[in-house]
Specification:
single chain; 344 residues; mainly alpha; 14 helices; disordered N terminus
């Protein structure tokens, strides 16, 4: 989660991305096997992606408003993961969610995934303090390319020349749309680069948990991951001093009824976003979700222009058009590839 617009991790990443069952499946399955996302109807993909964009923008705006009133980013992320845990528990109690029987190794994989989830947020937050926002956004726009590299190296998946070409306007477009004061330290650059890698690994790992050997539902992944992520967020909040600040702010009467209601609405929307985001990843694929991340940056700028009278330069406007054009071209390439796969 972007919650909109928040160790031994290398070994954990490897475990998330490729299990022994995946290796056996690769040996038994020809390299030309059809990716799971090409078996899903286009209308279903568009429905989930549309809901993803709406909820993502809604949560982003809500997050910005809450953080202006109470700057506790880790506790805000805790509220998101905690509400997701509660929501999934309600779904389980009402019979909407059925749990699979998992081995110790598979449960450890989910623990590693929850650690990846919170570490990704932590690295992003730390790197933002060492680089300018425009530089951070440009670096993050390369996530689709890193996602392609992960699939090629770990799963031997191939892509057409057109797919690679579509990445160019997507990245250049975001770069132009967010063009501004580019500033970074060496440590900031390296941490931002690590954040790009972790974000891409998280997106691929999310997809593999639902389409790989485990084949878990989006609700089950969230049910098993959210409590662990919530606990980890509390540790981060304590380590960063947010809990101490929260106690001081609470005694100062900062938490009015209106603010508490806003937090409740925000947490509920975050649960909906998490559910839709995971399901969209399952039906549309990790690469498409990475591309959507670039489009979301453009839509966020557009929303800022409409709602907050943000003034942009002509170069920024051109970048938005280029990014949207790149996304449209990528969509056409994917549709053509799906048609070709269905006829073979």
């Amino acid at each position: 989660m972007d919650s909109s617009e928040l160790s031994a991790i290398n070994e954990e990443d490897d475990e998330l991305l490729q299990t022994p069952e995946d290796l056996e499946a690769q040996k038994a399955t020809p390299p030309t096997s059809q990716p799971a996302e090409y078996t899903v109807s286009t209308s279903k993909k568009l429905t989930y992606l549309g809901l993803y964009f709406l909820l993502n923008l809604g949560v982003t705006l809500s997050n910005k408003a809450l953080l202006r009133s109470a700057s506790f980013p880790w506790l805000l992320t805790f509220s998101h993961t905690f509400s997701t845990s509660i929501g999934c528990t309600i779904l389980l109690a009402t019979g909407q969610l059925k749990l699979s029987k998992l081995s110790l190794r598979e449960n450890l994989t989910l623990v590693a995934f929850s650690s990846l989830f919170t570490l990704n947020i932590a690295i992003s937050n730390v790197s933002l303090a060492l680089v300018s926002v425009p530089f951070h956004q440009v670096m993050r726009s390369t996530c689709p390319v890193v996602t392609i590299l992960i699939y090629r190296l770990m799963y031997s998946r191939t892509y057409s020349t057109q797919t690679y070409i579509s990445m160019i306007p997507l990245i250049i477009g975001v770069g132009l749309a967010t063009f501004g004061d580019y500033y970074f330290t060496l440590a900031g650059f390296l941490l931002t680069l690590l954040g790009v890698f972790l974000a891409s690994v998280k997106t691929v790992a999310t997809n593999r948990l639902m389409t790989g050997s485990l084949k878990l539902s989006a609700m089950e992944v969230l049910f098993r991951m959210s409590p662990l992520a919530a606990i980890q967020c509390l540790f981060y909040a304590a380590g960063s001093g947010e809990i101490t600040k929260l106690q001081a702010s609470a005694s100062g009467g900062i938490f009015t009824t209106g603010l508490l209601c806003s937090i409740g609405v925000n947490a509920t929307m975050a649960f909906g976003l998490n559910l839709v985001s995971f399901q969209a990843n399952k039906v549309a694929g990790a690469l498409t979700m990475s591309v959507c991340g670039n489009v979301k940056q453009t839509l966020t700028i557009l929303l800022g222009i409409v709602l907050f009278d943000v003034v942009i330069a002509p170069l920024n406007g051109l970048g938005m058009l280029v990014a949207v054009a790149g996304a449209a071209y990528y969509s056409k390439v994917e549709l053509d590839r799906k048609k070709a796969a269905s006829t073979t």
